[in-house]
TrEMBL record:
SUPFAM superfamilies in UniProt: Periplasmic binding protein-like II (SSF53850), Winged helix' DNA-binding domain (SSF46785)
Gene Ontology terms, MF aspect: DNA-binding transcription factor activity; sequence-specific DNA binding
Source taxon at top rank: Bacteria
Protein name as it appears in the record: LysR family transcriptional regulator
Amino acid sequence: MAVTRNLPPLSSVRSFEAAARHGSFTLAADELAVTQGAVSLQVRKLEAYLGKKLFLRHPRKVELTADGAVYFEACRRVLADLENATRRMRSRDRNELLIISTIPTIGQLWLMPRLASFTDAHRHIEVRVVSDIRPLDMQADGIDVAIRVGPLAGRHYARDLPGIDLTLVQRWEGVCADYLFDDVLVPVMSRRLYEQGGPIDNLADLVSFELIHTASRPNAWRDWLRAQGAAPPRRRANLEVGHFYIALRAAQEHKGVALIPDVLLDGYPGRGDLVVPFRPARPVKSAGEYYLLIQGTALERPAIQTFRAWVLEQAAAQPRENSPAPASPPSCAAGPAAPPEGLMSIDVAGAQK
């Protein structure tokens, strides 16, 4: 007797998983190369199929329901297993496939604009980039290398630095880290808004404008102002958006001043419409850095060695004249680096970026 599988449409599952992973229909659409409306339609189809509401829709972001969170974990595991099996099948006669995981905004605004130079120079290496906001689990997710930002476990950070509400990895066993650059926040606003309301000579002038807050760094403005001895203004609620790309877009649309990691600015398509209206005498470094993470057992693979050298070269070329001196985290230079004391037992739940 034939058995009919009761499975949802794969296209709907892919759209749902991408939207849940990004916390955004817009970024899911970018990843899948479809429109935001197409992602929304596929998610609605899946909700109708299941008879459950998977997302709470907010004006500028989406949030998983309790049912959605459970279903997302199941979809994530199934798609990861399918992707890994497909990669192994396709790579039997070709071992130069490279899977790169990156948090969405740094991938979109820093990595992707540069990646063509790598693929043009190394056409024998097939590169696949996936976006994820969760703490990295390289073994479970089939990832070769990753770019993440966050505090390095076991490292001491001054309490007055702006916090980063992300965890780099779930398990440090066998994972080594190369420092890329610091996370330095700068205020950004549209050139037109600045010309209408400037000049901005001090923090009091700056906070007289509407402040754009980012949900992934809910305390960024408070921490950034506090690090300079200033307090947030006591006034009406400010605008809040889901992630840095939307914050940049809101600033470009003259809606206020966003606080953005300076590494993201050059890659933003509307950079010419934006200005940094105020820079403190001493840049404010966040309590965390950007790292290239590699599974130590894969360090001998030629594709990974080539990509690692290229990323470090790109990071070294990043302008740092306005940034604090870099930290010295564990490095992959001599093979798998022993993580700092206290890293071996990390097992942290995901955070949103």
